[in-house]
Recover the amino acids of this structure.
């Protein structure tokens, strides 16, 4: 249970708190009730007083025993027995319910108007009959003396269905285009219908003719009232024989005396939302009006606010239990709220224990707001030098800190910081100077990291600001430079954009092209006021295709350049590797020259060139004279191996072999 007070009027929300799931077993429910304090304090006035998803409308039978609610999903009607404080039955329907009414004192005769033009009748056992009206209906009213049902909706006609004869009668022809609501006065049976044009037409069912018309749209606009569009009638309710309340779609409620065409009082909700429900409380001359956000209770003679209720979810319908201070609301939520206001009246007979409960709560109020105390934490006490007061009567422990007297707090703070006023004065002077500096010309300072990106963002921000100022549609979106989440990107060098990387070079044509398109779009939007039509022969699709081709070509060019750079880099690496290998081979060759070999440097190059110019005969003679064989290596220099031939030994051996061969020939012969 939640307790609130508005204008010193206590309001008890009996449906506030956690609701236990239906699939829990009784043992688990009892265990949760023993452990959870919120569940222990919860008051379940009526068991299962909720809908699966949303409740659209709620009503109480005339005998006060049954509460009927329509909701979804799936479309259904639920009936609760207040004597048993539980659900009596539930019936599922074929389509959503737009409006329903209870024709009998109990639940035995029900009428439902569906969203698909069907009218469904239910008896005590269940579904009884279904018929269809020509147009989509929005509301209906039952005329008890003639047993006629009057249906209004998306038509200029008011359809009549007689339940005694079981047939449609001639409809009432009106001047309106559409009708939203209707109601019948319980005293003299006058039929009133609220139109979409903001008028109320009154008909006499006895002669089936219009007897009057009220222009509520014109009367609802008073001095200081701001409305958007034509106010239409969204709610209608009679009180007694002469009083009628009309609610408009712009949030105004008009109180009329049927003898006058001017309203006695105009009450504005100041939310601009359509009025969904109007109810009267005759005991205190109060009116309860509700839109989707708030329920306002005010005096019907003076318009003075008595109290108000603002639920957590949107309101669809409000119903007052007759002769009590209890009211039910149908919300955009599975749970249907139950409010009890003792100032409006006593609790109903079936829950009279609420009076005793509220009296006990009023006798022992718990104050949770301390106007004469200051809340301080332990750190604040250390700064003030009052840590030694912990545990004394001067500090009252509360949550993560303490409450202390406000006079003591101000006195100690003045002693701890005697120059607080001077600091406050300097801060105010500094603020004034900064405000005056803000009017001067501002110099844009670029950050140290990502200067080019910051400059680009500044230019785009200026373009957007200029466009928003020209269009007068509001402020421009905040820039990334002013967003705290992206400050590190312009302060930390690790976030520096590497423009020479392959990723940046491949993405830059696309990003730049998107930026060009964006700037072009801003420029076109700015010039849209001057140009009325696009020139013929030039379509936007051609321009977009050209732009796509341009950035595709740029990406391909970047890919080609990256490939060529990689190929040149690999070629240079290969050359460097070959050069290193050659130098290593030369070093190994120099280290492995045999003994007796003479290494000669580049001085033999001139001699070699001179030898090449000589003839072959001269070169052979020179070689025979020197008895050497030259082996040259032109990579680095030349090397020469020198050796001497043993001519005498070779000649002797050849003469010996010649003599032996001649002797053998002679012997054979």
């Amino acid at each position: 249970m939640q307790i609130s007070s508005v204008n010193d009027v206590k309001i008890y929300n009996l449906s506030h708190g956690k609701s236990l799931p239906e699939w829990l077993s009784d043992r688990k429910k009892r265990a949760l009730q023993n452990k959870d304090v919120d569940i222990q304090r919860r008051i379940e006035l009526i068991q299962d007083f909720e809908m699966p998803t949303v409740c659209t409308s709620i009503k109480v039978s005339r005998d006060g025993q049954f509460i009927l609610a329509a909701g979804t999903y799936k479309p259904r009607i639920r009936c609760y027995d207040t004597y048993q404080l539980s659900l009596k039955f539930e019936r599922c329907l074929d389509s959503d319910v737009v409006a329903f009414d209870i024709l009998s004192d109990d639940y035995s005769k029900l009428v439902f108007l569906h969203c698909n033009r069907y009218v469904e009748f239910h008896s005590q056992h269940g579904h009884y009959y279904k018929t269809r009206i020509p147009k989509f209906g929005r509301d209906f009213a039952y005329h008890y003396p003639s047993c006629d049902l009057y249906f209004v909706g998306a038509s200029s006609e008011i359809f009549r269905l007689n339940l005694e004869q079981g047939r449609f009668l001639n409809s009432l022809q009106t001047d309106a285009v559409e009708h939203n609501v209707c109601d019948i006065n319980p005293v003299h049976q006058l039929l009133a219908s609220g139109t979409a044009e903001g008028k109320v037409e009154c008909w006499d069912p006895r002669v089936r003719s219009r007897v009057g018309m009220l222009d509520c749209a014109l009367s609802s606009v008073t001095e200081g009232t701001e409305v958007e569009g034509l106010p239409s009638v969204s709610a209608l309710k009679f009180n007694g024989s002469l009083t009628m309340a009309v609610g408009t779609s712009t949030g105004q409620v008009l109180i009329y005396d049927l003898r006058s065409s001017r309203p006695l009082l105009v009450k504005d909700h100041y939310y601009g939302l359509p009025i969904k429900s109007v109810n009267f409380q005759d005991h205190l001359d109060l009116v309860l009006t509700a839109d989707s956000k708030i329920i306002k209770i005010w005096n019907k003679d003076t318009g003075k606010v008595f109290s108000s209720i603002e639920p957590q979810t949107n309101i669809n319908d409000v119903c007052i239990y007759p002769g009590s201070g209890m009211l039910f609301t149908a919300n955009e939520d599975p749970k249907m709220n139950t409010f009890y206001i003792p100032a409006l009246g006593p609790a109903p007979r079936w829950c009279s224990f609420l009076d005793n409960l509220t009296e006990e709560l009023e006798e022992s109020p718990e104050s949770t707001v301390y106007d004469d105390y200051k809340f301080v934490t332990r750190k604040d006490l250390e700064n003030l030098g009052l840590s030694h007061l912990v545990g004394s009567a001067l500090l009252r422990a509360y949550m993560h800190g303490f409450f202390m007297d406000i006079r003591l707090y101000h006195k100690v703070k003045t002693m701890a910081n005697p120059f607080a006023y001077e600091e406050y004065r300097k801060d105010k002077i500094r603020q004034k100077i900064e405000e005056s500096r803000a009017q001067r010309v501002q110099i844009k300072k670029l950050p140290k990291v990502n200067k080019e990106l910051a400059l680009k963002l500044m230019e785009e921000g200026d373009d957007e600001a200029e466009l928003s100022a020209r269009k007068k549609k509001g402020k421009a979106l905040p820039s990334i430079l002013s967003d705290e989440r992206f400050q590190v990107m312009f302060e930390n060098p690790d976030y520096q954009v590497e423009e020479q990387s392959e990723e940046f070079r491949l993405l830059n044509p696309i990003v730049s092209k998107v930026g060009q398109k964006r700037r072009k779009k801003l420029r076109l939007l700015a010039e849209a006021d001057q140009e009325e039509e696009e020139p013929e022969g030039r379509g936007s699709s051609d321009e977009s295709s050209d732009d796509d081709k341009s950035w595709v070509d740029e990406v391909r060019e970047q890919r080609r350049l990256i490939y060529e750079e990689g190929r040149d880099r690999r070629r240079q690496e290969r050359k460097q590797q070959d050069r290193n290998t050659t130098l290593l081979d030369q070093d190994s060759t120099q280290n492995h020259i045999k003994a007796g070999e003479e290494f000669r440097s580049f001085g033999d190059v001139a001699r070699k060139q001179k030898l090449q110019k000589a003839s072959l005969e001269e070169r052979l003679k020179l070689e025979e004279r020197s008895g050497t064989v030259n082996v040259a290596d032109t990579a680095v220099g030349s090397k020469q191996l020198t050796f001497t031939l043993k001519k005498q030994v070779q000649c002797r051996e050849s003469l010996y072999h010649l003599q032996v061969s001649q002797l053998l020939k002679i012997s054979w012969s």
Notes: The mean pLDDT is 78. The CA atoms of residues 499 and 505 lie 7 Å apart. The first strand starts at residue 2 and ends at 6.
